[in-house]
Amino acid sequence: MQVAVDKNSTIVRNISSAPRSANELTPVETTAPTRQRPTTSPPSRPNLRLRLMRAGVRTLSILAPSLAVRAIDRLWFTPIHAPLRPEAKAFLQSGERLHFQVRGRDVAGWAWGDGPTVLLLHGWGGHSGQMQSLAAAVVAAGYRAVAIDGPGHGASQTSRPGDRRSSFVEVAEALREAAAALVPRFGPIAGLIAHSGGCAAVALAIRDGWRPPSRMVFLAPFVHPEASMTPFGRMLGASPRVMADFARYVERRFDRAWPEFDVAALPTVRPVPPLLIVHDRDDAEVSYAGSQDLAAAWPQARLVTTTEFGHRRLLREEAVVAQAVAFVTQAAPALMKTAEPHRSTPADARDELDRDFDTAGIC
User: Fold this and answer.
1) How many of the other CB atoms lie within 10 Å of CB of 155?
2) DSSP characters for 73-139?
């Protein structure tokens, strides 16, 4: 594979919602990209449910730390489901429904179009309907789009009956199983586009031996899951001791060290394909700084920076969709990179819980 490699610079494109000329979309090279401070959601007034939750976790942290760990485990691994809009539901219904069996549970998928296959994977708490614009653009480019719902997300079942929890481990396994089932029917996977926590699941699948397609796109990737533990525990009122116990509990449960879930560490242990990263500087849910780390660590990566699109609008913004699809369908020139690694489990950006717990409860 021929790839242009620039050892000393990261390619950054800036796109905003305002109209831009072709010249403004030209990559701008920087020899030392500036690390941006992680963005956070604007402070919101916690509702009664969240205040009670915090009070309960604080009390358990003092009186029954083991029960506090169990409570945090349920909160951390339970996705808060995004609504399925009517237009997204109609789009899913227009596709060919696919079914994959993963450990006896049904994992749902959909396919549109013909030609080489491009896999689409949603983020934590998301569903395949959110990938509508990307799927339509993939089909328009003459490719087949295949989207799957991770276990415990969308139309897919959880791994355990009656348990709403999921994890990046399970999503990664579902991705591997679905890809293996697709190849005999549709041929090799030509490309992949993933969003947010889905990017962490893709990285985990590769770490576990899955051979990725030759080109991938990560939209607002959740790069450092371990870094979310401290703000998550602080938000819930958990003591540092309880969060440390929780971290050890997760490592025992999955038989993995937390750094194994860090996306930026993947190139140090596995060969990786060219990667296009798109992240909005104003993303209030997943840190833009993580994408800067990823661009610096991935040997053949380009970071495209947007403004004003936030975390999910990226998935339907025309300029972003066009660049993502052009890249995975190889209509874009070979990309570049910089080098210098970084290092961190399951769960998407937990900062977004500050917002989500105000409007939804966990049971």
Assistant:
1) 18
2) HHHHHS--PPP--HHHHHHHHHSEEEEEEETTEEEEEEEESSSSEEEEE--TT--GGGGHHHHHHHH
Query: Which residues does 90 contact at the CB level (< 8 Å), separation at least 6?
Result: none
Burial of 253 (0-12, 13-18, 19+ CB in 10 A): middle
The CATH label, of 3.10.180.10, 3.30.70.260, 3.40.50.1820, 3.40.50.450, for the domain at 10-15+84-228+258-349 is: 3.40.50.1820
Residues paired with 112 in a beta bridge:
145
Q: For residue 120, report the phi and psi dihedrals to the nearest 5 degrees.
A: -125, 130
Terminal Cα-to-Cα distance of the chain (whole angstroms): 49
DSSP assignment letter at 358: T
pLDDT at 363: 35
pLDDT tens digits for range 169-220: 999 999 999 999 999 999 999 999 999 999 999 999 999 999 999 999 999 9
Phi, psi dihedrals of residue 112, rounded to the nearest 5°: -135, 145
> What residues have CB less than 8 Å from 207, skipping those under 6 apart?
260, 266, 269, 270
Tell me if the pTM is above 0.85.
no
How far apart (Å, rounded) are the C-alpha atoms in residues 361 and 351?
16
What residues does each domain of the chain span? 10-15+84-228+258-349
- Whole-angstrom Cα distance, residue 334 to residue 265? 23
Q: What is the pLDDT of residues 279-297, one digit of tens each?
A: 999 999 999 999 999 999 9
Kindly write down the DSSP assignment for every residue of 17-69, as one continuous string. SS---TGGGS-EEESSPPPPPPP-PPP----HHHHHHHHHHHHHHHH-HHHHH
- As a whole number of angstroms, the distance between CA 252 and CA 29 comes to 43
With contact defined as beta carbons under 8 Å apart, do 323 and 332 qualify? Answer: yes
Q: Is 158 in contact with 81 (CB distance < 8 Å)?
A: no
H/E element holding 294?
helix 288-297
